[in-house]
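Write out this protein's structure.
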Amino acid sequence: MRRPVARKLSVLAVSAAVVSVGAAAPPAAESTAVEKVPVAVGYGGAVSSVDADASAAGIEILRKGGNAVDAAVATAAALGVTEPYSAGIGGGGYFVYYDAKSRTVRTIDGRETAPLSADSGLFVENGAAIPFAEAVSSGLSVGTPGTPATWQQALDKWGSKRLGTLLKPAERLARDGFTVDGTFRDQTAANETRFRYFPDTAKLFLPNGRLPVVGSTFKNPDLARTYAELSRKGVGALYRGDLADDIVDTVNHPPVDPSSGWNARPGDLTAKDLATYRTKSQAPTRTSYHGLGVYSMAPSSSGGTTVGEALNILENTDLSKASEVQYLHRYIEASRIAFADRGRWVGDPAFEDVPTKELLSQRYADSRACLIKDDAVLTSPVAPGDPRDPAACDARGTAAPTTYEGDSTTHLTVADKWGNVVSYTLTIEQTGGSGITVPGRGFILNNELTDFSFTPAGPDVHDPNLPGPGKRPRSSMSPTIVLDRHDKPVVALGSPGGATIITTVLQSLTGFLDRGLPLVDAIAAPRASQRNQTTTELEPGLYNSPLRARLEAIGHGFRLNPEIGAATGVQRLPNGKWLAAAEKVRRGGGSAMVVWPAS
């Protein structure tokens, strides 16, 4: 049942446009104490992130004539200062770009890679998997960073400003400091024990041996100097030279406090691993949903294929007319099935035969959609299908496991006055990454390699996500851009949250496109996340609502998750206006800004 979407979206645009005139960044000379609001409407471009200082950095670049790519890099660099436990130059990510002139979407895979010496036994010790918590805070977990190379690749292809210019706001923020909020303090407190294992991390993030105080100014002069070095020398300085040597030494000889008793297992990262790292420019995934084009990341991320397959499963359901229970039931079951296929088929395509085209075919989605019943719930784990040879309603076979992914990461979304759009998710994996700070450099190294499966799932299960030399671990990051029938942007969004990224993006998209919610409300709506597990995670707004009992009556089981994701997005409005939207509450609320607010 295909429905016209254009009229509905124009209504959404009008209703959303009157929500708020929003906020704009102050001129560069003013204080960085910027008002934090979740929605803004105006002209000249828009930026949405989790942090006001970071959004202001992007707006500063747009005001100086930079384009969406320039502003995205500036925002990301600032997030490396204010969100150092979620992102930074010690990590990686996925960059999705819409070019207004050609009306095309392109992507950069800046995912971290395993050392060239890695094999399937990377996390196996004495015949058994290393405990996850021990693997995280170790050199073994650190992959070759991809974020700096992503920035340079994006600028070389589509940017208009020099990297040094774009790093200036972040360098200034690191040097002069930002105001500590409750989220930053809480995240530090959650990591305090393991941060104390590493003296350089403790010195930086536990000033004077104590947790940072809310309202105090937090400075990172080491990171300011590192950004200044990258400005002078280019990002090649991180992959060759003294900075590269510092990273290698830190991974292979983690600077642990001997008195802590912590076994910070060394990694095996080499200068060659850094020198040979390359981003991948590749075509996005594309799914047609009710006449719209939904574009996202292809593998090594599973985001585009899994969100896309779920949308295809929902294609023939009119979610706009469904009751709230029917909508949530269908959404949960589509997620369950798509995750079953993700676990079996998606890994790094340089190592695995990933049937991306087949996973995104409507024919395959239809063969899986018939498993969904309105009055019953599928039993998890659901077995994967075979997209290469679809069989209707086939539920035979053995399910692949869902590997754990940290719930940190951050997402930013940018649009410019020319109509270019960026949806960019970047990460150091879980909150606080590996916990290991490169001495004197001011940034934490990632723990992305723990996104690999530690051991094979079993003799009858093929797992495409085991470690390998130079291999990219599977990700769930789902930076997404939706285009209309004329290949013009409708909305762009994304989220952090580990494997819940996929369900957050899927639920936000269906809330906006199908349920008629303004973008900021689609982002704020209480979330459910089903990842082919026996129970579905619910945020309190659903867990404590009457909807839970009505879904349980069908057969659903639930468990409480206090917070799922932290999305940001932008929406194109008529007459050159943009709407930026962020979280109202999650992670302390996000920051939406436009260059010139509408009156």
